[in-house]
Amino acid sequence: MRGVIGFADAEFRIALRNRWIMILTVTMGLFSLVLTLAGSGPTGTLGADQLSVTVASLTGLAVYLVPLMSLLLSFDAVAGELERGTLGLTLTYPVSRTAMLLGKFVAHVGILAIALLVGYGLAAITAFGLDDEAAQGLGALVRLYWSSLLLGAGFVALGYLASALSRRPATAAGLVIGLWLVAIVLYDLGLLAAIVADDGGAFTKTVFPWMLIANPADAFRLFNLAASDATAAASGVSGAAQSIPPERALVTVFVWPPIAFGLAAWRFRRIVP
Amino acid sequence: MVRLKLENVCKNFEGFEALKNVSFTVAAGEKVALLGHNGAGKTTLMKAILGLQPHDGGRIEVMGAAPGSHAARMQVAYLPENVAFHSSLTGREQIRLYLRLRGQPVELADELLERVGLEHVSRRRIGTYSKGMRQKVGLAQALIGNPALMILDEPTSGLDPISRRKFYAILDDMAARGAAILLSSHALTEVEARTDRIVILSKGQVVADDTLSGLRKEAGLPTHIRIAAKPGAADQVAAMLNAGRSNGVTVDLTCAPEDKLARLREIAALGPKVRDLDVAPPSLDDIYDHFSRRAER
Ligand SMILES: Nc1ncnc2c1ncn2[C@@H]1O[C@H](COP(=O)(O)OP(=O)(O)O)[C@@H](O)[C@H]1O
Ligand SMILES: [Mg+2]
Fold first, then answer.
1. Which residues surround ligand 2, an ion (CB under 5 A)?
2. Cβ < 6 A, ligand 1 pocket
3. Which of A57, A92, B6, B86 has its CA 20 to 30 Å from the CA of residue B43?
4. Domain that holds residue A161
5. What is the pLDDT of residues B23-65, one digit of tens each?
6. Rounded to two decimals, what is the model's pTM?
7. What phi and psi, each to the nearest 5 degrees, are found at residue A248?
8. What domains does chain B contain, in order, with CATH numbers?
9. Are B178 and B148 in contact (CB under 8 A)?
10. Which residues of B touch A95 (CB under 8 A)?
11. What ipTM describes this predicted complex?
């Protein structure tokens, strides 16, 4: 896979110079700090340590923020090169298009890794300062970290797909905002409405768990909340899906990145610059 | 050795024929100029050679390989028309990326940038470069790894005359090392005597493929002779030479290339009535016009 490192290096420099890395890192850091401090209430009554409580609120944050950051990083990847007119020249080099996409993928997921490390790290440090028992939640935090990265990787790849489907960055931007709204906000609302209408019928028992688990964001939340003790913060939909085993949710979180990347690479191969 | 071979290449855009039976070859060490007005099909042909845009008919062989194949891409360099780069990268970073893509050591970047005269700005963002400087970055990347075939789309547009001369010196150097070079331009004056052969494309068709002197001969355009006469003698000179025009000081006449020497002898015979004379062979623009217009008829 010649060129992957070259593309990754260039993409990382671009993000550094465009302040993307700084913006995302500061955003993650601020949100994590605020959540940790805001959640530092009477934890004793729940019987959970401070860090576990923080992980529960960070999970709720990550479901919204990680896909959004990932899509913002990735939507320009193909359409931007096409519009700037840089794609044609690059494609005459003896490297595959998949290598080009993979290089960008490495850089973008790497940027997410940095932003999340800083954000979650700050949260952990704060939690340790507030509670001597915080070490109990460390496992949950580590789990949250790598599953957040997987969630991000899936949405980075979905951003590439959107980018390869549109010939202009403006169209791609619209597409990823729509995708975020549908996957993160409307999907849950729709499922919730369906459950209410179904009132404990066949849909709730058979179709609903699969639909919930198919969405990487829902699967991510389910996995992290089910795996930790602090399910108190579980939202309505997740609360209704207690029956789903977390391992199954984990599978979704793992398979989305390769599926989305494969689709993006396939679509990218058909683009004529 | 033929590096690029085109046989009856055709390309349609929804019924519009952008290329019609284009055939010619470019050999190793040869510099060929592809000339044509805007919209003649130069870029379309180059994209087909590079495999960026598939052609519909005919054959293209790039060192025996199919256009766009890995084997072809290993040996072909491209400089696109209005070349663009990511504005946030520096010239040096951009060239280092391209070196990596060709599997070459990144340390060569500084040498390449110096060769095109960009060493003083190599650590500045490309967003701050002028068009000519971007063009030089484009040339630098096209030199990576001594390509066997160079496809350059209007490479000298945006370059000042001194940069253009340096540009052609670099091309001479590449050709001397055996590179086959195809470069496009919309004006014959841009490429002048810098190329070995000239292919003229008009509305997607090859209307000429020859050396400059061959084209000149084939066009058979008249030579212009301008005679500066002694004060007061202009009308007399014009009458004696059966020349059409005179403005009282100079006399203009045109003649076919084969009559040129006979005409000059007649003028010399006029002795002191003639003060000076200029002989202007048909200009490059005249020749280019001749071939592109002939195709339109
Ligand atoms: N993608 C395209 N779709 C439709 N028409 C095109 C496309 N690309 C080029 N053309 C047409 O093909 C003709 C040749 O264009 P081009 O090769 O760019 O000319 P040149 O490079 O000689 O100026 C033009 O009439 C142009 O409008
Ligand atoms: Mg063109």
1. B 42-43, 81
2. B 13, 18, 36, 38-44
3. B86
4. 4-269
5. 999 999 999 999 999 999 999 999 999 999 999 999 999 999 9
6. 0.90
7. -65, -40
8. 2-217 (3.40.50.300), 222-281 (3.30.70.120)
9. yes
10. 101
11. 0.89
